Amino acid sequence: MPPRLRVTDLRTHYFGFGGTRVVKAVDGVSFTLEAGETIGLVGESGCGKTTTCYSLVRLLPPGARILSGRIELEGEDLLTKSQAELREIRGRRIATILQDPMASLDPLFSIYDQVAEPAYYHRALRGQTLRRRVLELLTAVRIPSPERRMRDFPHQMSGGMRQRIVGAIAQAGGPQVIIADEPTTNLDVTIQLQYLNLLKELQRASGVALIFVTHNLGIVAKMCDKVAVMYAGKIVEMQSVRGLFYDPRHPYTRALLDSMPKLGTKEPLYAIPGQPPDLSALPPGCSFQPRCPHAMDRCRHQEPEEQPVGNGAIAKCWLSVPEVARE
Amino acid sequence: MATIPVRATPFDGIFRVARRSYRVVADVPSIPLLIVSILTFVAIFAPVLAPHGKLDPVKPTPAQCQAKFGMANCPYIDNVPPFWLSGGTFDTPLGTDFLGRDMLSRLMYGARISLVVALTGTLFAGALGTLLGVMAGYMGKWWDQIIMRVTDAWLTLPSLVFAILLSSVRGPGLWNVVLILALVFWSRYSRAVRGEVLALRERDFVRLAEINGVGKFTIMFRHLVPNVMNTVMVLFSLQVGVAVIIEASLSFLGVGVPPPEPSWGLMMAQERESLMEGRWWLAVFPGIGITMLVLSANMLGDWLRVRLDPQLRNR
Amino acid sequence: MRRYILVRALYSLVTLWLLVTIIFGMVRLTGDPIQMKGEVGADPVYLEEIKKRWGLDKALHQQYASFIGKLLQGDFGHSFEKSLSVRDIYFERLPNSLKLGLAAFVISIVLGVPLGMLSALRVNTWWDNVGKMIALVGLSMPGFFVGMVLIIIFGIELGWLPVLGKGGSALVWGSPSTWLTFWFRDWLHLIMPAFALGWYFSGAMLRITRSGMLDVLGSDYIKLVRLKGVPERMVVAKHALKNSMIPVLTFAGLNLLIMVNVAVVIEVIFNWPGVGQLLYDGLSNRDFPMVQGVVLMSGLMIVMLNFTIDVLYGYVDPRIRLSR
Amino acid sequence: MITRFLAAIAGLTLVAATCTDVAAQSPSRAPILSGPLAKLDIKDAQIQTAKGKPQGTLTIAQHFGLDPGWLDPLEHGYAITQMTYDYLVHDAMIKPMPQGEFTYSLAEQAEMTADFLKAAFRLRPGLKFHDGQPLTTADVKWTYENFKGFYSKLFRDKLEHIQVVDDRTIIFHFKQPFLEFMDLYNGGVSGIGWIVPRHYYEKVGRDGFKAHPIGAGPYKFVSQQAGVQMVFEAWGEYWRRTPATKTIVVKGISQLAARVAGLETGELDLAFGMTGKLLPRVMQDKNLRWVPNYTSVWYLMFPGYNEPDSPFHDKRVRQAVSLAINRQFLARQESQGIGKVWGNWISPENRDAVKGDGTELPLPEFNPEKAKQMLAQTKFPNGFDFEWYVPFVPYLDMGERVVTDLRAVGIRGKLQAVEGPAFRAKIGQGRKGYPGNRTIVQNIDPRPGGAQAPISVYAVCGSPASFVCEPPIEELWAKHQTSRNPEERDRLIKAIQKVLIEEYYMVPMYWNPFVHVVGPRVLPEGKGFERYWDTLHAPYPWPWEVWEVKADK
Questions:
Q1: Which chains touch A (3 or more CB pairs under 8 A)?
Q2: What's the pLDDT tens digit per position in C53-96?
Q3: What is the DSSP letter of D386?
Q4: Could you tell me if D416 lies within 8 Å of chain B, comparing CB atoms?
Q5: Same domain for B61 and B154?
Q6: What is the span of the domain harbouring residue B299?
Q7: Where are the domains of chain A?
Q8: Is A273 in contact with B3 (Cβ distance < 8 A)?
Q9: Fewest Cβ atoms nearer than 10 Å: which of A280, B162, C233, D103?
Q10: Does the domain formed by A5-85+213-325 have CATH 3.30.450.20?
Q11: Distance, CA of A55 to CA of A71 (rounded, Å)
Q12: pLDDT for residue B2
């Protein structure tokens, strides 16, 4: 049986200024995801996480093109599908939760309208059935007195409540994969936790696969089964959560972990030196080499290959190549 | 932890600068730039370039007089059509007006008036509006209330009505039009600049300057004014086109630049009656002049707006 | 919310009061209207009497006080030049301007909005460039130039359309039979001025529609609607359109007011007996009450529209309410 | 000053008239006043007893915005324009008609005592206002007492009391001899003779009357849109005759192009003030007919010329200005050559005007070379810059042509284009309206009455609109004012005119045709329509009741 979602060598680039400027936002990304599994996509802003997500549902801004790769949802390649077929997949089989709950609901339509849409278009529910379905979804995301609240408009609700509604919308089509793009960044810490628990619960109930995009490693630890660390459009390390925290293999992962504030210590916070690279003018060799404390000559000339580093984990670093590391 | 310096040769820097500036230049829309340059060139060198004077009729030959009026001596030949129509000559390529003056020369001098009036008027408006906007935004409190209420009231008056009203206070005249444009348009700047300043006021460099006891006026002129210049420049470039139209409209209504100066709007107004006689060129050429100038000013303004406002890059 | 409305209302009142004061002062700087009556050989006694009747013999602050007092009772005074009450003359002319303004408004929307939407939906394509160009040309051609070109082509060369005035039909408040018929008569007279007036605004409408639409299309909620798998045409027709129409309609409302109240140049060119011409006449005759009346009416309408918009926005989006 | 000027006019009425023909036709008149009477030359009205049937619509284009105030004779300004509306809605005791400048209208008899202390009128029998109420001497008295227009002070100051003898007979008693009374009471000069219905005016008030006037004239007011349009309808019971045209519509159209277009499309039947660029088009149009309608003369004035630092202080500079103007070509360009180059600034239509056609005053010369030579003898051998050239509005094109002529000899200036009302206001202030002394004003003034009328306004020191103030002229003027000898007065007034021209205080250009055009609907076809312009000294084709148009289809 094919995995729920398999992404192979995905490349999405932006072409600006009449094609004179190419931004390699996603550059050879591969991963697989099974039912009920959660993968975390981690990295600094601008490293290609969000573009990866939008590439999956093929909703990219003008100027962006998917150059190569395969995206297989239960064995069907999404890249060969027409936009009409894709529309059937969006919301029905792959749902999305966006970052900013304040902005992701249409201010001019009622909650009911917005939650009902996926069920309306994908399940052809109408009238009372549709209404029951919406009530069910709102109850599932713990909206108090849903009967009344579903007639409300977004501006009448708090941020946490809105994000739960977005969660309900994601559930509405009964999806196989949910992409959550930093869903808690704009929420208060207490509400964050509630929301994450809610998501977990929903996942447990429906067995949906979850792609969780974040730059918060704490959330990764709580939510994910495995983690893909992205840097400059590439996955530089992919590991189980446990492996990542206890045995990070890529210097960038290590730097990320170091920059996490630690409880109970008074060590000064560590910041990764240098700037994230300009994706239109990448340095030669390894993209991370200008900022890497272990950079070698080779790093500056030759890009490292993906290396298996045990336990199904992979890393993209010369240090992970035994012969090179020995040199 | 050591910082790792980005290694770069000096040439890299030069190349980067060169590449960037090339991008900027290559990106400027070339057609409007060309039009504006030509018009500016023509305006500056009108006395050299114009084949005839702007106020004096073209001296006719006795033969021409005989042909047109049946007399040996006449002061001028009026309403000569452009050279491609029958009766036209290359001496006056775009024909002559009702007083036998060369259209081409008058159009050239007209570019001068339009540019001078629009640019200086907008400049004064920009200076006044920026000053008041910075004051309102930075001084806050009563200053803000008073300046912004006046700005609101000012904005309520449609610009052309306001301009006509002012022109009947001041009477016609080129510099009066400049003054009118300044008085009408300052409010557009003060509104935008104030908003910008409200945001800048909270920024670190302003706070730091305040903590260090830098005076209010120094903060306004050293720190705030340079930082709102982007906004002001964008507004300026978009306002120039409007100013050209307002000048032309005022002159058209007879309350702008007085005759016999060849303002484009005035030329159109004076030849309005010639339209009925089929001498369309007399009114259409100045109209094309205005449209070209405003169009290219607007295009450059748009481009500048996109350039200076990264959010709009892809628009 | 109530506090917000109160503050907004107060601001509007202050704006209006400032407007009234600015106009009052400025109009009085334009010159002495008595001299306008004082043609060559005028009887000084007669001029004195007119001065007294017009209240110009009083000190400026007294004039101001009585002006404000009358204004509060809805009385704009009597026109110096046209002898009758400003209010009556204004409302007699208003239907003409309204007819022209509405026609131009319809033209500007019919031309501007669909093209703007097309431009936004096909952003950075050939369509978009054409749309942007049309908008720019629209904004760059002065109305009087468009008007004159139209007159040459359709009025004189082809002789299809009448070139002057509004035709014989008029809306007379006293005879209800004209209240309706007025709007549907003399359409030929309307075509050219309405087009010349609407042309400029259609360029502006195109731009605002395009940028409003782009703002909405780039917003997260449209992204989410798309991610829900809603058909593209429904995304545009339902969500994007409804949202992008708010700024467009706001702007269009403002444009309508401007077209109705101050289409001075177009009304002068086409000899259209509307409010704009009234204003122009008033200014050249130093007819203080007339100018004050017309400008204040347009100011009042604009301030009221702005107030309504502010309040509505405040309802729709609480953030606006807090930020002001 | 005005009083003095009026006294001058009044002198004219002293001239004995040869009125034998008229007397023969007039009804037998019982004298109202006793004692010796002044001789008055008042023509009899032509009454058409046969009732006609009014037909058709006459649409008239006034060349500026319409003022409802024109409908109220009680506030009659100087403006000649207003009389167009007087002649429609109202009627005067005596008014200019084609038969003569003084013609009986509402009054069938007028008398004045030889000492000019009493004036008496007898109304026609059976006069009515439009609403059917009788027009009586009470209305005449009320109109006199409530008149607020120009000259009202003079009328008020001179009056002792009004004696209403009966419903048809009224006698005005004056404190001092009121020589000019008959001249001013004439409907062609002031508004006081146009009788207003007391009962109606008191009922609706000043503004109500302007909004909907009632009078005793040939046309009833129907409706108006302020500034835009007025509609009048024939009143079948007008005493003189049934008006020939059923409906008269007046439209205010300030743009020449719009008036021409209206004539061409048949939207208009009569339009005034055709000039400049569109005149040839009108003349060539086979459907349209035009009358030259010569009114007055274009001329230049130099405010402040008598101040020593003015460039125009030197007579030779003013002469150079005159020499520089190519009048022949100017008249050709502006009026298709029908404008007549003229040597006097006063129109030959004014009584006692010196003829400027080369007989009494020479035709002005055009000689730029001589102009340059004249300038070379002055302080300005290379010419000079003056400040403003102020053309009569809206004749800006003509102004620009003159300025261009002046530039050619080195007299350089800019055009000051002001709006029409502002121009008239400034002219009304005379020298004071034009600060500085480097300005040239181009003016035209179709003023009814004798040649002394324009002189008293522009060329004597005491007038508020004075542009010329010269001791020699003052001397002649003072003599003229006191003289009662018609020949002497005539000689003096002509002498003043000669001084003004020979010293170049006034620089005449040409006698202006104020061209009026009628469309094909106006009857009779062909040349006969010109008879509508027969009324003396009238720049407009009054009276209106004689106008005939084709019936509406």
A1: B, C
A2: 888 888 888 889 988 888 888 888 888 877 788 888 898 889 89
A3: E
A4: yes
A5: no
A6: 31-46+102-308
A7: 5-85+213-325
A8: yes
A9: C233
A10: no
A11: 9
A12: 40
